Structures are given as C-alpha cells and as structure tokens.
Amino acid sequence: MASLPPPLSSILFLTLALFLMSALPAFSSSRKSLDDHHGQLIKAGFKATLTSIDSGRNFTTFERLHRQMKRGRSRLEKFCGIRSTVYPAQGEVVMNLSIGTPPLPYYAIMDTGSDLIWTQCKPCLHCFPQSTPLFDPKNSSSYSKVACSSNFCKDLPISNCRCNGCDYLYKYGDGSFTAGVLATETFIFGEVSVPNIGFGCGELNSGNGVQDSAGLVGLGRGPLSLISQLDEPTFSYCLTSFLGTKPSTLLMGSQASSLNCPSSSGETKTTPLIRNPADPGSYYLSLEGITVGSTKLPINSTTFAIQPNGTGGLIIDSGTSVTHLEDTAFSLVEKEFISQLKLPIIKNEYDSSGLLCFQLPSSSVSVDIPSLVFHFQDADLDLPRENYMITDRNTGVMCLAMTDSRGLGLTIFGNIQQQNFLVVHDLTKETVSFLRTECDQC
C-alpha cells in the first residue's frame, strides 16, 4: 500500500524553511526533561560507542587534520552514568546508537555545543548522504509525535503547530539546519534502552561536516539536550588520538567521574564553569593566560573574558578539532613558537587553514618542543606534546594544532587539545575537570 503524502501544512512549513535559513539567527535552546523517570534509568550508567567517519579511509596525517580544520571553521561561526564508545570523525566524535522498536543502528555526531537531538527521517524533502538507511517512523511501534501543548514544542525557537503534531525548524550559525516533525522515541545506548526521548525527525536537512552521520545528539546545557532530558547533571568523555582508530568513551551518570582506568595519572585539574546569558547552552570556562616553554605570554587580562554584549569568552567543545584562539592571543602564541623553535616556516596547502607549520630537520637531529600550558581559573593544564604539535615524519612537516578566530573574538578549546584527558562536566558543582588518561587503554 502506498504511503500517504505529508499534510499540506507540513510541506509548506518545511518548504518555507528553505527561504528562512539565511535570515534567521543561530538557535541555542534548552528545556526541562520530558519524563522524571529518565534519571532513574541511568543511575547505574550505560555504554554507547562512537565510530570514526574517516576510519578505514586512506588519508595522510595532514589530510585528516585539514578535513577537521574545514569543519572547525564552520563551527567557530556557529557559536557567535551512560558509557559510550566514541571515535574521532572529521573534527567531530560520532556516537553509535539505535533508535526505535525494533531498534535500528545509527551514527550521530556527539556535540557539547548544541542541544537538539535529531536524525534524518522519511519522507525526506532534502537529506544529505548517510551510511545507514533513513529512519522510517512508520516502521517503529514506539514512535510518537509531540503535541503542540508539550514543553518540547514550546521550547524550540521556531515551531509550527497543527492538529496532529508540531513541526520544527532549528538552524546552526554555520548554515547547517534541520526541519521536520517533533517526536518521542526509544533510544538505545549500548545495552540500555531509554524510552520517550524527545527528538527532531528531520525531513529537510543540510549540514557542513555532518555528512556520513545520521544526525546529531546535543549534549549542551540547555533543556533540549540529552543531558537535560535524562535529568543527569554529570557526564564525561575520554577522547583517543584523532589520528588513531581505537574507540573513545562517553560516560553519563554515576560512572562519569571515574573511568576506572589504570592508565590515569597525575592530579585532577578542576576549573569553574561560567555562564554567558547570551549563550546559556554552551560550556564556558575562564582562561587567564597561556605559557609557551618558560615564557608566560603578555596577554591582556580581558582577552578571554565574556563581553557585556555576550561576545568573546572561551567555550570547551567536543565537536571542534583544533583550538581557535582570539586573534591577538594567537598572534602571541605563534610568535613565541617561531622564536623558540627556530625552524623554517613552511608555506603549503595547510597554510590556507591558518596553521603554523615548520620544516623538520633530518631524522638524526632532535627537536626540543616547547611546553604549552593553558592557565584556566584554578587549573593549570599542561598539554601533552601530541595535543598541540602534529607531526608527519613522511613529509618532514610539523604543525601547531591551533589557529585564530578570524576576528570573531571567541576562543574555542578544541578536541585535539582534550585528547587523552578524562574530561568531566559536573553541572551540579558547575565545574569541568581534567585528568590525564591514556584513553585507548581503558
């Protein structure tokens, strides 16, 4: 039997969304959990896996980095327990999960920089390529549309109520968007099934760097996110090297503060979360300075501060690859590395991404790489060398894995700088903690 077409009002709304994209601001929304029992389901914690989109593809070190840089530039503009296994993917980390009854597996971007959970759905007016079939609501017995009277519908920035449900439109600052039907569904993370998760069933979607995934799982601070829906204020992740293929880990709930990993070492460094009223869904930290080698850089004390109009500040983000520093701060970091390394600067294809790259000497000559410390409030984070210097011995090139913010004033602490740390977000204590960990050994 042929399926009936979607209601005319839905088609008109989704079509109109195409014309609104360039005019609408970026959205960051939040809401209260749909069901109080969600929190009870995860007190013992559960596991999900993340898979690398680039895994198995024949990319060189700098081809991978360049792909991540392209996505990172878009994400920069965007900003103007559970246990999961995660893998690096083109500047993103991708979660393995299942949706529906019976459950079907999907890959979705894990994103601490946004709130909405969504996946591409049939019937699709415009969808980007993905490696799994589109989710078909007709084939799931646990799928249910969200009523217009629900908080889920009311909390989204743009929605369109009709007699049989609520349509939504959600735009990101980098030009990506999703529009479709709001619904609830059963989501499976590893072996744990969680019913009645509110999500967007996207019938009109466009994404920069989201291709090959099926959508996105928002872990931001707002009420639309998975964190808020589960009513679980603590989660963490431990990211393996972006050049590797071994899985990373996402934890939520009671397991989040400890990975029970024998490779963890050193002192846990904890810094306060701060709030930006203009962007309440993002995770802001207070960065007070940067040291390269033995030189603490003369960075103005207000450089990384949130400005009265809501601009500026520093966001810690799981979905941005390299760190984007406020321009004046990056200029000082760049000059100091040039001064201390005293190596020839390479101008190549990666220079267009804003990377500072050096020509390495012959293999018989060792290079003394200066240390790099980020001085967060109450936490001096001494980064491992591989978290800020990317080396390709085959080409003899070494690049600093950070760049400027292109005049936007915002600083984003990226996931390459976070790799091989257990990063714990505690929304009750309003803190983020870092513990050195060999994440691929856990």
Overview of the molecule:
- With 442 residues, the protein is α+β, with helices and mostly antiparallel strands.
- It folds into 2 domains: 8-255, Acid Proteases (Cathepsin D, subunit A, domain 1); 265-441, Acid Proteases (Cathepsin D, subunit A, domain 1, Beta Barrel).
- 14% of the residues lie in helices and 35% in strands.
- It has helices spanning 8-20, 38-41, 61-79, 151-155, 226-229, 327-341, 415-418, and strands spanning 46-50, 82-89, 92-99, 104-111, 118-120, 144-145, 158-162, 165-171, 177-189, 192-206, 215-218, 234-238, 248-252, 265-274, 284-285, 287-292, 295-296, 314-316, 323-325, 345-346, 356-359, 372-376, 379-382, 389-392, 397-400, 402-404, 411-413, 421-426, 431-436.
- The chain has a 19-stranded mixed sheet that branches. A 4-stranded antiparallel sheet has the order 17-16-22-23, covered by helices on one side.
- The longest helix is centred in the N-terminal third of the chain and has 19 residues, at 61-79.
- It is globular.
